[in-house]
Design goal:
about 85% helix; mainly alpha
Length: about 210
C-alpha cells in the first residue's frame, strides 16, 4: 500500500506537469487581469472537476466490471477531443484578441462587452479542462482494487490532492512571472498573445501524445 501511494504521488506530480493543466489559466489570468486569489479559486475548482470526471468513470467501471482497456480507450478518446477543443479555444481567442487590439480606445459599452466575453472565456476554458481526463488515475484505481475500497479511496484522494495542488501552484507561479512583462505592445496584444500561447500549448501536447 505504501508503494502504491508513493507511486500515485509520483504519477500525479508528473501528470500535472503537462502545460495544458495550468498554462492556459495563467495566460487567461494575465490577459483578463485577474487577481491571484481569483486565479487560485478558479484553478482549484477546475482541478477538482478535472479529477472528478475520471473518478466517476473509474468508479462506474469498477462497479460494473468493465475492463481496464475499455476505460483507457474511453479516456484516450476524451483526451484527444479535449486537446482539439483547447486548440480551437486558443485560435478563436487569438483571433478575437487581434480584432480587439485594433480598437485601442474602447467606449463604455465595449468595456461592458469585454467583461462579458471574459466571463465566457473563463467558463469555456473551465469546461475544456474538466472535460479532459486524468488518464493515469483509472489504472491506479484498478491497481488498488484488490486491496479493497479503502485502498481505492486512498489512491483517489492522494492523486486528487497532488494534482489540484500542482495545477494551482504552477498557474499562480506562471501568472506572477508573466506579470513582470509590462511592455506596451504586450499589453495591447495581451488577448491575442494569450490565445496564441493556449493554442500552441494544445499543439505541443497533441504532438507528444503521438
Amino acid at each position: 500500500m505504501v508503494a502504491l501511494l508513493l507511486s500515485t504521488t509520483s504519477v500525479a506530480f508528473l501528470h500535472a506537469l503537462a502545460p495544458d493543466h495550468w498554462l492556459p489559466f495563467a495566460m487567461l489570468a494575465k490577459s483578463s487581469r485577474w487577481s491571484v486569489n481569483r486565479l487560485m479559486w478558479i484553478t482549484t475548482l477546475a482541478g477538482i472537476g478535472h479529477v472528478v470526471s475520471s473518478l466517476i468513470l473509474g468508479s462506474i467501471g469498477l462497479m460494473l466490471g468493465f475492463s481496464l482497456s475499455k476505460l483507457q480507450a474511453t479516456e484516450a478518446a476524451r483526451a484527444h477531443v479535449a486537446i482539439w477543443l483547447l486548440i480551437g479555444f486558443g485560435v478563436a481567442y487569438a483571433l478575437w484578441g487581434l480584432k480587439h487590439a485594433m480598437h485601442p480606445h474602447p467606449h463604455l459599452e465595449l468595456k461592458q462587452a469585454l467583461q462579458l466575453y471574459a466571463i465566457r472565456r473563463m467558463w469555456t476554458l473551465f469546461a475544456v479542462v474538466v472535460f479532459g481526463p486524468c488518464e493515469p488515475l483509472i489504472p491506479l484505481m484498478f491497481l488498488a482494487y484488490p486491496s479493497g475500497v479503502l485502498a481505492i479511496v486512498q489512491v483517489s484522494v492522494v492523486f486528487s490532492v497532488v494534482t489540484v495542488a500542482m495545477v494551482v501552484i504552477q498557474s499562480v507561479l506562471t501568472f506572477i512571472g508573466v506579470e513582470w512583462i509590462r511592455l506596451s505592445i504586450v499589453q495591447r496584444y495581451a488577448h491575442a498573445l494569450s490565445g496564441l500561447v493556449i493554442a500552441l500549448t494544445g499543439i505541443v501536447v497533441l504532438v507528444f501524445q503521438f
